[in-house]
Amino acid sequence: MLTLTFAEARKHGACLDRYKKFAEFKGGVTKWGANKPFPLLEVLDNNGLDDALWALRCCQPEVERDRLARLFACDCAEKVLPIYEKQYPKDIRPRQAIEVARKFANGEATQDALAAARDAAWDAQAQMLRKYLEV
Question: What are the sequence ranges of the domains in the chain?
Answer without folding.
Answer: 3-59, 63-133
